[in-house]
Each structure stands twice: as C-alpha cells, then as structure tokens.
Amino acid sequence: MTRENMTWKSGAKPFLLKPAGKDYLWGGSRLNDDFSKNIPMSPLAETWECSTHPDGPSRVGSGEYEGWLLSEVLKLHPEYLGIHGSGVSMAAAGEAVAAGKSAEAAGEPAAAGKFAAAVGEPAAARESAEAAGEAGAVGQLPILIKFIDAKQDLSVQVHPDDDYAFRMEEGQRGKTEMWYVLDAARGGRLVYGLSHDVDPEALRRSLYQGTVEKYLQKVPIHKDDIFFIEPGTVHAVGAGALIAEIQENSNLTYRMYDYNRVDKNGRKRQLHIEKAMDVVNTRRSTEPRQPLRVLKYQPGWASEFLCRCKYFQVERMLLNTERCRSLADFQTDSHSYQVLLCIEGCGLILEEDGETLPFFRGDCIFVPADSAVLKIHGRAQLLKVTG
User: Fold this and answer.
1) Which end of the chain is more exposed for a tag (fewer CB within 10 A), N or C?
2) Over 80: is that where the pLDDT of 373 sits?
3) Taken in order 203, 204, 210, 216, is the CA torsion positive or negative?
4) Quick one: pLDDT at residue 10?
C-alpha cells in the first residue's frame, strides 16, 4: 500500500502552524512573554496564526510538511479545505445556501443583540457561487486568524465590504471580523461605531481636522467578551487589550485617525480618509451586547457557540480530561477544515497510529477536512474556527 493510499484511508492529520509577526508601533511584548512566540520583534503587535495572505503567511510547524508555507500545502492538498475548497458547482452552491436557510428555519442556535447581523447561513454554506469559488482559490483560505497585543490604542479605522474591495481594490476581499477578548486592562475600552448619527460632511471635516473623537462610541471591554465588526463600522481596539481576531482573508484597512502619532522614523502614518468615507456607516451604532452563551457537554469537554457569519463559525471548547477516563473525541468531516486556537492551558492530540501532537497556550492547529479520528487529552480552552 502506498503512502498516499494510507493517508486517504486513515484521514488527514492535524499540524501546528507558525505565525508571521507584525511590529506595528502600538504593540507590546505579551505575545512573546505570555505565548512564547519567540519572534524577534519589538514591539510585537500581531501574530498571524493561520494565514495564507501574502502580507503575512503562516508556515507549518509540525509533521510531514514542517517548514512549508500553509498555502503551499493547500495547493498540494486542496482536499484539506473540504468540499468548499474544491470548487463547487453553481448548483451545489445554491443547494448549500438553501440547506443553510432550512437549518436556520429549523432553529439552529443564533447569537443575540449585535450578533443578529452575523447570523445567517451557517459557515457550511456560502451566500453565492462566487463566494464559494473564492473559497476555492488555489492554496488560499477564506479566513485569517490573529493574536493582537494592544499596548497602545489602535488607529480609528474602517473596513470595506467584499463588493467595494472587489471593485476598488483589484479584486481583493473586504473584511468582516470578530474579536474574542483574552485580557483587558482595568477600565479598558474600545471604539465601536458612532455615538449618534453624523452628517457625512461633518464627519469628513472632523477627520481632516483631527476632531473625530467627539463622534466615537467607546464601550467597556472585559475578558471573554465577543465583538462582531461588520464592514463599514468605525472601530478601534483600546490600549491594554489582548485579543484573538477571526476575519476574512484580507489586509484592507482604511485608517481614519491615528492620534497624530509618528512612527520610529518620525513620520505620521498614512490616513485613508476618502476611501473610508466611501464605506463608513455614519448612522449611530447600537451599543453591543454580549450574547447568551450556553454550554453543551460531551465526555471530556464542553463547548459554547460564539458567533457565525457567512465566512466563519466560532465556538469555544473547554477541555478537561483530567478527571475522566474517556478522552475527548474530535474529527472533521468532508465538508470543511477546522482551526483550533489554544487560548489557555495545554494538551495533547492522539492519532489513530499512535502519534501525538502536543499543544500549549498560544498554539494554532490546522485540522484538515475529513481528518483522522483524533482523541484530545488535557486541560485547555480553545477557539474552534470552521471556515
């Protein structure tokens, strides 16, 4: 039996990812100090944990393809993405959307408050055949996962939607994102939308004059909070926040205001005011409310649904096999890959052939679609992201 046949029989194996780092001026040192990233950057503002984006690609950190770019592995093994990544037909895409809507009508879990806008077709469906085709771009993921360490306030910014990005940014994706707050300074706040309706011309003048802060809605943040950021929403992470971000595979950010800061070369960072004005929502944003979260228990772990939009679904897994004799079962189906981001604790993934994959706080694990049967042991919290 060839190695290829053995792989198909037993299913694809999970592997660790190694991130790309970003040294933006507002960053700190916690990603190295707390998560042992060992990236020689100071500051270390972001780590792109699961990324095929050319601005910050991840590499494989374990297994047969250790050292390869994730995009190279996905080009070699497009089946790792699941049926969505293999180029579904127009009819299949339509059936997937219809199935998603039927499931929603049947009462699948929905998020509350501000998350209502995020809940539509499940991540297993795509809104259109075009979106399904994008997910199948050779070697590319539709999502990007980051850690963010904000020692200082991030710039006030906004992201375009897919339509604007496609038309005005040479076919790129827009940016929808979700934040999971890993830690927050006492009294920490972030910018989430505008505090009241603002005339577009008044907003434009305030951006050029540097007085936009009077229009911003600032909301408190706490550990384990969740925020869903739609395209067009003015936003900014506040100082003292440590965040896991799940987003579309995009690096399009229109910087609106940057507190008149200068970089290490004494230059102010570029603003993108006119593009921002093209896409910004100038209506008052409802203050975000945290959704109701319900734990579901299985042997060895519990899970809670956090957020779902047409690009991704996110759950939190609370693993604790210390006091039970049965390990936690885990396996992906043929529909989609999953990404496990360890945000607390540590553990071990056991494979059918006896191989093990240890993971620690801050590690990111890619689990291909139609994976081998896995067992997980340990005490940890993980974000499970389905693309």
Assistant:
1) N
2) yes
3) positive
4) 54
- Pairing mode, if any, of strands 338-351 and 364-367? antiparallel
pLDDT of residue 84: 66
| CATH 1.10.10.60 holds for 15-279 | no
Q: Which amino acid is at 104?
A: E
* Measured distance CA(86)–CA(33) in Å, rounded: 39
* Tokens coding 348: 């071990």
Tokens 């693993």 belong to residue: 319
| Tokens matching residue 14 | 């999970």
Percent pLDDT > 90 in the chain is 78
Residues 6 or more apart in contact with residue 298 via CB below 8 angstroms: 328, 329
d(CA 215, CA 288): 17
pTM: 0.86
Superfamily of domain 292-386: Jelly Rolls (2.60.120.10)
pLDDT in tens, 159-198: 999 999 999 999 999 999 999 999 999 999 999 999 999 9
Structure tokens at 302: 């519990």
> What pLDDT was estimated at residue 117?
38
Please compute the mean of the pLDDT values over residues 326-338 and round it to a whole number: 93
Over residues 335-353, the pLDDT tens digits come to 999 999 999 999 999 998 8
Residues forming CATH 2.60.120.10 domain(s) in the chain: 15-279, 292-386
Alpha carbon distance 274, 209 (integer Å): 14
Alpha-carbon distance of 366 to 374, in angstroms, equals: 13
Mean pLDDT, range 23-47, rounded to an integer = 97
Q: Can you say whether the dihedral through the CA atoms of 365, 367, 368, 374 is positive or negative? A: positive
